[in-house]
Amino acid sequence: MDTKSHWNSTYNKNEIEKLGWYESYSESSLQLIKKCSIDKNASILNVGVGASTLVDELIDLGYKNIIANDISSFAIDKLKNRLGSNSNMVEWIVDDLTNSKILAHIEQVDLWIDRAVLHFFNDEREIGTYFDLLKSLVKTKGFVIIAEFNLEGATKCSGLPVFRYDEKMLDKKLGSGFELIEKFDYTYIMPSGDSREYIYTLFKRNF
Ligand SMILES: C[S@@+](CC[C@H](N)C(=O)[O-])C[C@H]1O[C@@H](n2cnc3c(N)ncnc32)[C@H](O)[C@@H]1O
Q: What are residue 185's DSSP bridge partners?
């Protein structure tokens, strides 16, 4: 099954609240977003958004320029349904981060947020394409939040193999223009009660 079909089927078959990455409140991401002190008009791109509650929370906090991307139109439709009329406040982009047709052409953003997407990219081409896209889309003085399984983390998620990270690996991939501002490990408890070890990182782009 290709990537798009895998994720469409995952969101089609399962209730959002039972997914192994569901959070009823995106506490760790919001903690890092607060640290950025960005304007409410700042552009925020949430890549691989899934049906994350982060979008609801950003709208509630008054952010006005939210862009939500996913490879799965099923995920985005579920999120749109939950948001109801608030879904009009978001720009929606169904696109593959490793073979972008649309994202590659949008304006640069103030903040890039990825929770649990990058770790699904296992080969050098996919990882390289992801970071090339990120670097082309994040403004100078912009921010990057990346939260993935850490080196103690599980080796699979959603039945797929994952590539795990620490902050040094992310720093190296981002390169010299980016400065690590904050990082912490976080144990996420899945709806099943199992735990998953994440690393949360915040970088600032200096040049
Ligand atoms: C584990 S889920 C995390 C969802 C969301 N970020 C969250 O924290 O709830 C991974 C998400 O990445 C999306 N995804 C996987 N590969 C992708 C790709 N190549 N381009 C864009 N999105 C992708 C999936 O559809 C899925 O919604």
A: 199
CA dihedral 128, 54, 5, 170 (to 10 degrees): 20
pTM: 0.98
Cα-flanking dihedrals φ and ψ of residue 206, to 5°? -95, -30
Ligand 1 atom index nearest CA of 52: 9
Q: Which residues line ligand 1 (CB under 6 A)?
A: 3, 7, 21, 48-50, 52, 70-72, 75, 96-98, 115-117, 120, 157
pLDDT single digits (tens) 32-62: 999 999 999 999 999 999 999 999 999 999 9
Amino acid at 92: W
Residue 29, H or E segment = helix 27-36
- Are the beta carbons of 46 and 69 closer than 8 angstroms? yes
The 10s digit of each residue's pLDDT in 145-204 is 999 999 999 999 999 999 999 999 999 999 999 999 999 999 999 999 999 999 999 999
